[in-house]
Amino acid sequence: MEYRTVKIPDKINLPTMLDFYPLQTEKWTRVSRFFENLKEGKLTTTQCKACGKLHWQPRIVCPECMSDDLEWVELPKEGKLHAFVESIVVPLGMEQEMPMLVGVVDVSGLLISTKIDDAKLEDLEIGMDMELKVVRVEDGKQERYWYRFRPKK
Known about the structure:
Blueprint: H1 32-39, E1 44-48, E2 70-74, E3 78-87, E4 100-107, E5 110-116, E6 129-137, E7 144-151
Antiparallel strand pairs: 1-2, 3-4, 3-6, 4-5, 6-7
C-alpha cells in the first residue's frame, strides 16, 4: 500500500455554511439591526406589537401569533448564570479556544446561550451575575460583532 504525505494548513478558510458567526449585513439577514446594535454595545431583540411576546433570538415573524409587526427592544447588559459546561469539543476553526466554557444566561426571562469569557470552570456558580461582552470578529471578510457573557466585575 502506498501512502502520500499531505501538509496540514496553518489556517483553514471556512466555507460560509460552517462559519460560526453569521454574515451580518442587510444583504445576508433581515435581522441586521441586531448586529448594528451589538456594534454599539447594545444587546437587542424583537418584541411582537400584536401579542407582546418577547423573542430570543430576534425574529422577523412572531412564532406565537405569526404577526410581522415587531419592534426592536434593548435588553439589559446583565443577567444570571442559569447553566454552564466546559466543552473540549469546539466548532471547526475555534480550536485555539479549547477548552471552551459555554452557558445559558437568564436576561429578563430570556435564556440566552453564550460562550463565557474571562472565567475558569471552578469560578462559575449557578445564579452568579454575568455581564455582556461584545467581541469584534477578526477574519478579514467583513467587520462583524458577536456577543458573549462574562462574570460581572
